Amino acid sequence: MRSRMTCQLDALCFDTNNPSLLARFWAGVLGRELVDDPQAGVALLPSDDIGFRLRFLPSQAQKTGQNWTHFDLTSTSLEDQQATVARALELGGRHLDIGQGPDARHVVLADPEGNEFCVIEPGNNFLAGTGFIGALAGDGSQEVGYFWSAALGWPLVWDQDEETAIQSPHGGTKITWGGPPVEPKTGKERLHFDLAPPADGDQQAEVDRLVSLGATRIDIGQGDVSWVVMADPDGREFCVLPPRLP
């Protein structure tokens, strides 16, 4: 049974040199509504009740190396896959070669700031029924998959050969971790999760629970802010927000 205090995945946040530009790109690709965000400046709303926001945070840092996670976007047909690719290219995306080879059925792209994402071929059984954002496909250990399963109260839907995946009990996007070898962390990640306790929750109690599961509190120079910055067992940053308003 899920604890009353268990946090929710509120948002996936992008560090970006141009928040408005990147938000418009993803709004166009995903067909999501763009709104003002009191902290980020700009955000995209989820398309349903089980989704999460996308937040775009201003940053001066330049992207180096591959992100720890990326979108796997689903397709209903080859024509649908081609239409998604064409839309992304028209909006400012580009093709990306990460060694996928000429026989790959998925298409690897990058958004205007180089953030990787894939448009998956139709008929992918693992992503069946997940929605347009089929997965956040990430680099990470089996331990971190177990951590996030407990942190969010999302059951494991894959646990084999040290590869793990979790999904909300209500369905929607899966979060996956590819197991070893895990790329070494070289600096602050450009993508991170924002977690939020429910309106009747307690931020400090949730932080304490996450620490008991293997997270640590960290200081990245955030100063006196209302959220708590933490790292998961792989050292990837995430934030615990104050309880959301009813």
UniProtKB/TrEMBL annotation:
InterPro entries: Glyas_Bleomycin-R_OHBP_Dase, Glyoxalase_6, VOC_core. PROSITE patterns: VOC. Residues 8-122, 129-243 form the VOC domain. This is Catechol 2,3-dioxygenase-like lactoylglutathione lyase family enzyme. It comes from Actinopolymorpha cephalotaxi.
